[in-house]
Amino acid sequence: MKPSDRYLKVVEWSPEDGCYVGTSPGLMFGGVHGHDEAVVYKDLCAVVEECLRLHAEDGDPLPPPTAGKHYSGKFVVRIGTDLHKRLAIEAAREGKSLNEYCVGRLRLEASGASPAGRRARTARGGRSGMKAAVK
Predict the structure, then answer these.
(1) Number of domains within the chain
(2) Whether this model's pTM surpasses 0.85
(3) What is the tens place of the pLDDT at every residue in 37-63?
(4) 87 in a domain, yes or no?
(5) CA–CA separation, 82 vs 89, rounded Å?
(6) Does any domain span residue 114?
């Protein structure tokens, strides 16, 4: 296994950019783009290797690996008392538990289906996730 295999590599189609965009979340900012998905992935792999080489040359510690990471499905979010109250009221109005209501809202935001989700995607560079190849 190469050191670069420890880092997630994502290639997504970006309708806003009109091309594929390749990134390695948690390892580097920016990415590579182009019109051929396979070429973008190959270029991304080379950029990740170069990034790791530069970290080693500079004596910088590597960020934690991102590939193969296990997610428990639970995380704690501190939201403040006013927002907590508002969400609890909205959940009660819909006859849902607070957890069920918040999971639904998060899914909607993450899918980009809500206006706020679409704005967030545009603000971070238009990565839509319509087509993704993940290693």
Answers:
(1) 1
(2) no
(3) 999 999 999 999 999 999 999 999 999
(4) yes
(5) 11
(6) no
